[in-house]
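Ticket 4471: requesting a sanity check on a complex prediction with adenosine-5'-diphosphate. Repro inputs:
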Amino acid sequence: MTAPTTSLDPTAPHPAIASIPTGLLIDGQWREAVGGRVFDVENPATGDVLAAVADASPADGDAALAAAVGAQTSWARTAPRHRSEILRRAYDLVMDRQQLLAEVMTLEMGKPLAEAMGEVAYAAEFLRWFSEEAVRVSGDHTTTGDGANRIIVTREPVGPCVLITPWNFPLAMGTRKIAPAVAAGCTMVLKPAPQTPLSSLALAAILQESGLPAGVLNVVNTTDASTVVERWMTSGTARKVSFTGSTGVGKILLRQAAETVMRSSMELGGNAPFVVCADADLDTAVDGAMAAKMRNMGEACTAANRMYVHRDLAAAFSDRLAARMAALTVGNGLDDDTEVGPLIDSAARAKVQRLVDDALARGATALTGGRLPDGPGYFYPPTVLADVAAESELMTTEVFGPVAPVIPFDDEDEVIDRANDTDWGLVGYLFTQDVDRAFDLSERLDVGMVGVNTGVVSNPAAPFGGVKQSGLGREGGRVGIDEFLEYKYLAVPRRRGR
Ligand code: ADP
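Returned C-alpha cells:
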C-alpha cells in the first residue's frame, strides 16, 4: 500500500479533506441539518466533487443564533487573558497544520498551494494579533468641565455577531472577524461562502480544540443565505453584522440592519486604480503590478483594476508586464509549478470573458491572453490589454480575474480625477520616486488605503477598509477590535467641599 500523497485520487476523498468536519457547529455540537440536507463542494480546477457539507435550513440558522445569544453573558464575563490564550493556542494549531489547511484551501478554492500556504500564515496572524489586543482594551477616566462629575469610560462587547465571509480568502476573512470578536468577548454565528465551506469548518474545529466554549462560535453553511441571514438580521438579538463580499449584498444587509439598528462593518468591492507616474522606477512598478494584479488570480477586492501609466512609460510598462504575465504557469493549484489557478466557478469566468470581449470590441489590444482555454476547470489566462477605452465596462466593473487593462495618461490632475471617478474607494496604488508627489497624490486619492511603490497593503497590524461604497469600518490594526466593542460611560458625582 502506498502512503497518501497530495495528488488527486479520483476515487477517494483527498486525505486533507477527510479530516474536516462537514456538519453545522451549533452550541458546541457538530450536527446534521434539519432533514439531513447537504450540498456539494466542487474543486474548481477539475469540476470534481470534494465533499458534501450540511446545508442549514432557516430553523438551523435560528438554533445557531439562539446558541450565540445564550452564551453571550457568560462569555463576556471571561477574563481577557483567558480569551487571549484561546486565540494564541489557535494560532499555534493553525501554523502546526499549515500544510493541511493550505491543501484544503487549494482544493476548494483553486489558488496555488504556495499562495494558500501564505494565506494560512496571514490568517493565523489575525489570531495572534488579536490574542495580543484582547488584554489591551482600555477606557478613560476624566472629569466634567465644571469638576462636578467623574467620567469613567469602559468598553463592553457589542453582543452576538453575524459574520458573513466570501470565498476568495476563505480562512483569512474568517479569522479577521472571528479573532477580534473573540478578543472583545462577543459570541457569533458565522456563515461562510457556499463555494468554500471546508476552510471555515477546519478553523472552527481548531478553535474548539483551543478551548473556545460551546456557543461562542457557531458555523452555519447554507445554500439559502438570503433567508437564514435575514432572520438573523431582523431577530433583534444579533447586535452586530460584519460582512465581506459584494457591494450589492452589503447594501441588502445594511437595509436589514436598519430594521434593528445593528452595528455594521462592511468590506465591500473595489475598483483599485494603479497609477504609474513618469518618474516611477519601471522594475518596481512592474513588480508591484504583478503583486497587485495576480495575487489570488486577481480575485481580490484589493486587485488593481485599472492601470493608469504615464504615456512616456506606457509601452515599456505594458510590454514588460505582458512578458511577465505570459510566462506564468496556469494549472491545478496542487501542482508544484502552478502560479495561477482556476477562477472560482463558471459564472466568474464568464464575467471575466465578457468584460475582456467588451474592451476588445471597443478598440483595446490583447498583448497576452484574452481567450478561453479548452478543457476542464475554470481557467482563464493572464491577460494584458493595451489602449483600453475609457467607456469600457472594465473601467467601472471589478473584473475579479487575471486581467490588467493599461490606460496611458498625460497629466497628474487628469489621472487623479479618473482614479476617483468611481463609486468605490478601497485601495489605490501609486508609483513615483518623488516623495512630495507620493504624499500629495496619496492624499488626493479617495481611498481607505494606498500602496506607495508596493502592490501589497494587507497586513494584520494595519487598518484594512475603504471609503465610499467600498465599505464601513476597518479590520485589523489597533482599531480592528473597536468594531466589536461599545462604549459605556459612568457619571459619578464628586463630593464637594473636601
Ligand atoms: P460573490 O459575488 O463574490 O460571491 P457575495 O456578496 O454574493 O459575493 O457573497 C459574499 C457572502 O455573502 C457569501 O457568504 C454569500 O453566501 C453571502 N450572501 C449572498 N447573498 C446574501 C444575502 N442575500 N444575504 C446574506 N448573505 C448573502
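Notes from triage: The chain has two domains: 15-268+472-486, 272-459. Leaving this open until the requester confirms.
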